[in-house]
Amino acid sequence: MVWRVITFCLAAFLVYSQSAVAQTTAGASATIVLPIVAQTPSFGSEVTVYNPNAGTITITPAFYDAQNTSSPGPKACGSLSVAANVSKQLSVAGAHFGLLVLPEVTGTRRFYGYARTQTPQGVGFSTEGFPIENFNDQIQDATGLKRVAATGGSPALQTNCFAATLADAVDYELRLFDGDTGTELGTTLSGSLQPFQMLRYLDVFAASAVGDGDLTNVRAQFTNLTGNEKKLIGFCTVQENTTLSAAFVIAKSYGGTLSNAFVQGGDSFGTTALLGTTDDQPLEFLVNGERVARFELVSGVPNVISGYSGNTGNGNAVVTVAGGGIPGMSCGAAHNVSCSNQAAAPMVTIGGGFGNVGGGTGATIAGGYEHDASGDASTIGGGNANVAGDLAATVAGGSQNRATGFVSTIGGGSDNVASGSGTTVVGGANNVASGDESVVAGGNTNSATGFFATVAGGGHNVASGRFSFVAGRFGKASGNGTFVWADLQPNVNVFEVVEDNVFAARATGGVRFVTAVDETGAASKSVTFDTNGNVNASGTFNGSSDRNAKEDIAEVDPSAVLAKLSVLPISTWRYRTDALGVTHMGPMAQDFREAFGLGADDKHIATVDADGVALAAIKALYRLIVEKDTQIEAQRQQIEGLQKRIGAIEQAANHR
């Protein structure tokens, strides 16, 4: 069936960037190019397409009249549906010759094309439909061209050559060479074509000013001066001028055969598939005209740069940009730097994201955006606007964190700073570890400024002493080797400890130490410091009284102690923090201190001092008791003697 194109096609279609030879038996593609289709008084073309797919395909033909015609350029037409395993034919209407491109609408289903161009008497030439990916930017040669004058009844042979473009403008040159000697013939023809334009050189020997005489083995060489993957189509026809029979000769490039090429839908090579170049120039992959991957050699070492076309290795070696990057200059703290990914030093790796800069040798940015890994061997895992600014510094993630110290580390969170050597901020927000080897485990607005200082977490804590430790809220360990725990207070009450080597805890709800539990896990042995300052223990308090631990030992006069104790005021009372109804008994510390001069101050009574005074008084009382017992015994014996004497006297009186 003949399908006539009533109007000519004007359509956009995908042009593949693969380089290969221009003629092959593997002729299927999702876009077929027929270099010459004509409808003139001398010639007409009939185009056949075949659909080998399992379903119907739709083709949207695009025809471009040659520049030599009266109305060059694209002509619009409708689409063509071809059922599965069916061939359809079409031809052009009117007076035209030019380039026909047949894209399948999905860009994935391949088909075949063929054209027969002939006179009304059936004399002419055939043209295969070429897969669009077969054309390239390489030098192309059309061979076997001829020019023969009509003699002795033999027809004259004339060669016409054509140059055409696909989706890109191309500058080109056309030269003729003697096939036997390689000598250039005539002058060089040159020209410029915009996308989808064709130019015919009628009698190319005359156009090239080749001298008179028959030529039977001539090569036409088409050179693409633009290159850069912009495709040029070159071909010639050798025409017999009596009957107008002709031979179609496509210009071929030295680029291998399609059997070794990668084509839409995939291929099987039977061995490792190789894709690349044989020189040291970069290899780039484009999608929709935009670069998406670049492979390059720098100092003989391969780099891989993928993603946005603005991503770059800046001439550094051993770099990898795996992807990401976006257009624009709105990144960075001032929103005025490139949003591409930049490997600004050797051995840098950037996994993705955008606006990332790897400025240190061997630096790594796994992803995220607007990061700066400027330290050598530094690492940023992800997040946004993080800085790893010194040797081996690491920011695992989070936002606006700055690890600027040597081998410093920030695990995550936001607005954290690890500026000292070997410092670590595990997470949280607005934390600073500036003392060498210091650590902030988390929380908010904590600072570890001392050497080997630690803030375990919480908020608004400061560990400024060397080897100090603080946790909780508004704790401040200013002493060296000091441990501070600060509990939650409703107001900003800083709990600061300035003494060295102190264990201090502010726990206004009490303190408990559990040393044993029962089978249910409940505390069975513990010491509790309650909110009133009382100490409650399930065992005893054993204070040291070892002679070897004491000095300035002096004897005590128990009687003097008892005398002082006898006049020491003893009262009942309650602490101001005690609940109503709670009553205690004892002296006041001031009176106790004045009476005995014991203890560290006049605000406390040490249990050992109270015990000592009590024992001394008991000893004095014991002496008094012994003295009284001795005196009583003597008096008893005296009374007993007197009683005996009185009894004897009474007995004698009775005998008178």
Task: Walk me through the structure.
By secondary structure, the chain is mostly beta strands. It is about 10% helix and about 35% strand. The strands form nine sheets. A 15-stranded mixed β-sheet has the order 22-23-24-25-27-29-31-33-35-37-39-41-43-45-47, with no helix packed on it. The chain has an eleven-stranded parallel β-sheet with strand order 26-28-30-32-34-36-38-40-42-44-46, with no helix packed on it. It has a five-stranded mixed β-sheet with strand order 1-8-3-10-11, with no helix packed on it. Helix 2 crosses helix 4 (about 605-655). The radius of gyration is 52 Å and the shape is rod-shaped.
Report the count of strand segments.
52
Low-confidence stretches: 1-23
CATH class call of one domain: Mainly Beta
Global mean pLDDT: 90
Number of helices: 4
Strand order of the largest sheet: 22-23-24-25-27-29-31-33-35-37-39-41-43-45-47
User: What is CATH's topology name of one domain?
Assistant: Hypothetical Protein Tm1070, Chain: A
Radius of gyration: 52 Å
Distance between the termini: 187 Å
In percent, how much strand structure appears in the residues? Answer: 25-35%
